[in-house]
Design brief:
The protein is of the alpha/beta class. The protein has helices spanning 26-42, 66-78, 92-102, 109-120, 124-138, 142-157, 172-212, 227-235, 278-293, 308-321, 342-351, 366-378, 393-402, 423-429, and strands at residues 13-20, 46-54, 83-86, 105-108, 215-221, 252-257, 263-268, 296-302, 329-334, 356-357, 381-389, 404-411, 414-422. Bound molecules: guanosine-5'-triphosphate (GTP) and magnesium ion (MG).
């Protein structure tokens, strides 16, 4: 397998930076930096110091001015860091400039998240998706990885390496980049093909599910909000739930029964995060399709998160990007058992007046949540084709009474009815539903 990383596998001590430009961004920048600390610790890298850096303007080369950057590099040296991690997204050229200046590995938030995802991915599909995203991230950065070879050959060859020119004057590194690039493209193509096969399988499974016409809800929300714990407690399963970011990467679907006896499929999904690399959203689109195709969403909020509103907005933004922005949403304020301050509780209720307060620890609110699911589903309507034998004409009357009949045709002894049917009566007619064409 093409190895995308040239940086030492075992970086141990990191200096973290977040550079911001507008004083109004200070609070947000501080909280992003804190979150980066959590992400980095998830990778078992110790954080020597986190520095919030204000720069008056955006410098193209290093984001901040060269003087400030040199100071920060000195700080990293003083702490004996072997990596500098910058929360801002770095263009490949900026990353190269930083590494040249620091003579240390320099990575950005995206690379940290990609590394976490790479470690966590369990199913074949998630692994392929992460591989794909990592290779796409690495491609424009290959020059950075092999830069040292060029430096060596330039030193021994003496003369300045001319731009363009024939193949003979090119450095070793450049040739290596070409080899790697070709290898990367091949690997990317293969991963895409394998993913396509897996997606087809997933589609077939989904068709099967549609045929059975079971209602489907997806649990979504910011990372570490308690989504997997909720799925576990509702369905009695044991998906990994842990106090860490991105515990879940693979979607899991479980079947439960609502209080009214109606079956419901519930899917646990990957958590979202601020500045989630766009290519990861792209990569996970197929698995997140589960959320897009669900009848409704359960949006889990961590009631203890000081930035609950930002997290809420982030989740809605990603959902919109996925094309799931207009699904019915049940909001829940989870971990409510940990909110003991009445003032905090009052302010949460004001911010999220419709949210159901839940706790997966005490079980508070879970019954309410299930009833709310039933209510959402009662409003669900679906378009169906039915083949009804003439001696069951009372079912056709039922459709005329309770649903919106679009067309009626006769075929032999059967009546073929196409109708938009509320979920409430769809179950009674399920046996006569025809497979979607
Ligand atoms: N006190 C309390 N802790 C909870 C509750 N729900 C979840 N937790 C804890 O919160 C942490 C995160 O829970 P997860 O279920 O892994 O969160 P998640 O949303 O699936 O996280 P990712 O998969 O990382 O996106 C775990 O340590 C849970 O035990 C709750 O209602 N009350
Ligand atoms: Mg989870």
């Amino acid at each position: 397998m093409f190895e995308v990383r040239q940086k030492p596998e075992m970086v141990e001590r990191a200096l973290l930076l977040r550079i911001y430009f507008d004083p109004r961004e200070a609070t947000e920048a501080g909280s992003l930096l804190e979150e980066l600390g959590e992400l980095v610790r998830t990778l078992d890298i110790a954080v020597a110091e986190s520095v919030l850096v204000r720069s008056r303007e955006i410098h193209k080369k290093l984001l901040c001015g060269i003087g400030k950057a040199a100071e920060l590099v000195e700080l990293a040296r003083a702490h004996e860091c072997d990596v500098i991690i910058i929360d801002n997204g770095l263009a490949p050229s900026q990353q190269r400039e930083w590494e040249k200046l620091a003579d240390l590995t320099v990575i950005d938030r995206e690379e940290v998240i990609l590394d976490i995802f790479a470690r966590r991915a369990k199913t074949k599909e998630a692994q392929l998706q992460v591989d794909l995203a990592r290779m796409q991230y690495a491609l424009p950065r290959l020059a950075r990885m092999w830069g040292h070879l060029d430096r060596e050959s330039a030193g021994s060859g003496g003369g300045q390496s001319g731009q363009g020119g024939g193949g003979t004057s090119r450095g070793m590194g450049e040739k290596q980049i070409e080899v790697d690039r070709r290898l990367a493209y091949m690997t990317i193509d293969r991963a895409k093909r394998e993913l396509e096969v897996l997606r087809k399988q997933r589609k077939t499974q989904r068709k099967e599910r549609e045929r059975v016409d079971t209602a489907h809800g997806a649990i979504v929300g910011y990372t570490n909000a308690g989504k997997s714990t909720l799925l576990n407690i509702l369905s009695g399963s044991d998906v990994l739930a842990k106090d860490m970011l991105f515990a879940t990467l693979d979607t899991t679907t479980r079947r439960i029964e609502l209080p009214d006896g109606q079956p419901l499929l519930i899917t646990d999904t990957v958590g979202f995060i601020r500045n989630l690399p766009h290519r990861l959203v792209e990569a996970f689109k197929a698995t997140l399709e589960e959320a897009v195709l669900a009848d409704f969403l359960i949006h889990v909020h961590d009631a203890t998160a000081p930035e609950i509103e930002r997290f809420h907005d982030t989740t809605l933004e990603v959902l919109a990007e996925l094309g799931a922005g207009d699904k019915p949403i049940l909001s829940i304020l989870n971990k409510i058992d940990l909110v003991t301050d009445p003032e905090v509780l009052a302010s949460l209720r004001e911010k999220f007046p419709d949210a159901i307060e839940t706790s997966s620890v005490t079980g508070q609110g879970l019954e309410d949540l299930l009833h709310a699911c039933s209510r959402v589903l009662a409003e669900r309507v679906c378009r169906h084709h039915y083949r009804i034998p003439q001696h069951r004409a009372e079912l056709v009357s039922l459709l005329h009474r309770e649903a919106k009949v679009l067309t009626t045709e006769y075929e032999g002894d059967d009546i073929i009815v196409c109708a938009v049917v509320p979920a409430l009566i769809a179950g009674r007619l399920a046996a006569f539903a025809m497979l979607p064409a």
